[in-house]
Amino acid sequence: MNFQTLSELAVLCEERGLGIGALMLEEQSAESGRSIKQEFATMSEYYGVMKEAVHRGMHEDTTSRSGLTGLDAQRVGAYNTAGEPCLGGPAGQAMAYALAVSEVNASMGRIIATPTAGSCGIIPGVFLSCQERFGWEDDFMVSGLFAAGAIGYVIANNSFVSGAEGGCQAEVGSAIGMAAGALTELRGGTPAQAVHAVGLALKNTLGLICDPVGGLVEIPCIVRNGFGAVTALAAADMALAGVRSVIPSDEVIKVMLEVGSAMPEKHRETAGGGLAQTPTGRRIMADLRRKK
């Protein structure tokens, strides 16, 4: 890749007269040796999997094997339709879709890791809800996935995307940043605005620990995906409105690395702390062990 930071990415886009998604497609093609058409087709397949996961999560039984989670996406969707939700609208739909994909993952269904399975609902939730709202074509959404991929590439190579390394800020936080930056571009924002959206999003999740109850990617992972989708929408709107990340996004990424490196092991996907070690969390763990 000809960029290693978000600032370099934005400059490269300006020099080539390309958006982030188009530039990343060219870069990926050059690095892989595959044609642009082949790379685009592969990403299109990934988007198809995301759409299938949303549909399944909203219409099928997603009760997990543990029995701890499932069907919350459908509950939120029904409430959005029948009630007068505090959030509602497109944001409520994004939240429901993000929950849907995460529940499909927890019930052993097929998803796309974006960037991990633990954060798999955020980008599909944001993308599918916005596609339905704005009437965008699938190919347009696929270009957005390349933009998200460029952002994820920078984060992964300068910080973490794994909860075991850097806590939930690395998984859910990275996914929120990827979704926010990509959505900013899809909505007509400049590469610079997209980069600001990433920083705005990441700042909101700094320090978030990874504390899966029972060691499963269910509690609190699934609901964090729902919240994450809403945060991504907010960050994109802020950036499009002209709000800037006063601390440059690349510096925010470095802070995520610093915070994650200082995070105790018990707060990095080991189920040794946080919610996993509450009285209820310990009881759930004991129940799961008895079932084995």
UniProtKB/TrEMBL annotation:
The keyword Iron applies. Its EC number is 4.3.1.17. InterPro entries: Fe-S_L-Ser (IPR051318), Ser_deHydtase-like_asu (IPR005130), Ser_deHydtase_asu (IPR004642). GO terms for biological process: gluconeogenesis. Pathway: Carbohydrate biosynthesis; gluconeogenesis. Keywords: 4Fe-4S, Gluconeogenesis, Iron, Iron-sulfur, Lyase, Metal-binding. Residues 16-276 form the Serine dehydratase-like alpha subunit domain. GO terms for molecular function: 4 iron, 4 sulfur cluster binding; L-serine ammonia-lyase activity; metal ion binding. It comes from the Bacteria. Signal peptide: none annotated. It catalyses: L-serine = pyruvate + NH4(+). Its cofactor is [4Fe-4S] cluster. It is an enzyme of class 4 (lyase). Belongs to the iron-sulfur dependent L-serine dehydratase family. NCBIfam families: sda_alpha (TIGR00718). This is L-serine dehydratase. It comes from Paenibacillus albidus.
